[in-house]
Amino acid sequence: MPQNLSVILGAQWGDEGKGKLVDFLAPDYDFVVRATGGANAGHTVYAEINGTVEKIIFHLLPSGLVHPHVKAVIGNGCVLHIPTLMEEIDTLKEKGLFVKDRLFISDRASLLFEYHKIIDGSQEDSKGTQKVGTTRRGIGPCYSDKINRRGLRLCDLADWDLFVEKYKANVAWHQKIYGFDYDEDSELAYFQKERETLLGISVNATYLLNNALEEGKKILLEGANAALLDIDHGTYPYVTSSNPTIGGVFSGTGMNARHLGAVMGVVKAYMTRVGSGPFPTELTSSLGDKLREAGGEYGSTTGRPRRCGWFDVPLTRYAILLNGFTSLNLTKLDVLDDFDEIQVATGYSLHGKPLDEFPARLKDLAEVKVHYESLPGWKTSLQDCTTWDQLPEEAKNYVLRLEKWLKCPIEYIGVGKRRDQLIVRPV
Q1: Is the C-alpha dihedral spanning 10, 13, 19, 21 positive or negative?
Q2: Within this chain, do residues 295 and 183 fall inside the same structural domain, yes or no?
Q3: pTM score, two decimals?
Q4: pLDDT average, residue stretch 330-355
Q5: Where is the domain boundary, 198, 221, 250?
Q6: 398 & 317 share domain
Q7: Is 28 one of the catalytic residues?
């Protein structure tokens, strides 16, 4: 059985640089697929288009679309904000990248409406100091409608009268609870205008993808969000509303696991987090500010400054355990260029006892004592390094020590933003 399905997943709290690895590997694949999440994702790609390096931020579309031969599929586990989808398609067109006959969306994908955004904001505002830090993109309320079996899916557009009936019932349901005013007619008019286009790219993705795998086509799964944001396995409740771990790959696409090959985890050379929630290695000092500025750590979806801290081995080992990573991509190693000394969290203890498992209770995670090891910095730029041998010894030592602690091979090393600033290391 050919192992022609490869998977790229985030192994921290998101923003690890998954889009760059997807962009690097996508030329060797026939399909790039999204399985979970919605426009709360933000994958930044620096692609050369007509001789110019362009920065493109993808929220809903799979970022493999920058390669003209690649077909893209948005799976049933995703939630679709159609205006965002259309804006992204138009942005690609403006750059000379066309998605006609290359973009397909599962007919089982859920539709996200403007009222979901209103509800998201209302729920977040009501939490006071207990705010989760949601992107306010309506993701959670849309998934809530799905789980409560009242959500609308792409396939519902096939019967317009029934779609309108279900839509109005949903709006009325939420208005009773949240009491907002809403312009149903404008939103329905928008969907009626886009209906033909959407039905034209709607497919039964379960059959499309499994048939492609059986035919020997190569599929690359582009994960969104990350392991510690998983609704079940992450730092609940400060998580997203889907499963951006390996299980969500299959439930969110309808692909079976027979063709699974490489499962690649993406980790920054340090830690970041957007929004609220525990962060054992967070740096609240000037060192954290230095990391943020050196790494440009501001959210591509929200623009919010990211919280920054040292690399966390126990947390990353938990992500490796969850996903069964076959290798890792260590990104943004160059951000550490100007540090004399680099700390790495190698273990936790709780109430004086070593903690061998990543805790479920937030109170426990907030109270862990973090044990660090100090490694020397390299104090030179890595951005021109193209091979493992060109890295300074201190940078090699940092990678090798992480690899030893994590017990997972580090195959790719990012040393800059561009596609070519990625070192491939034989493992």
Answers
A1: negative
A2: no
A3: 0.95
A4: 98
A5: 198
A6: yes
A7: no
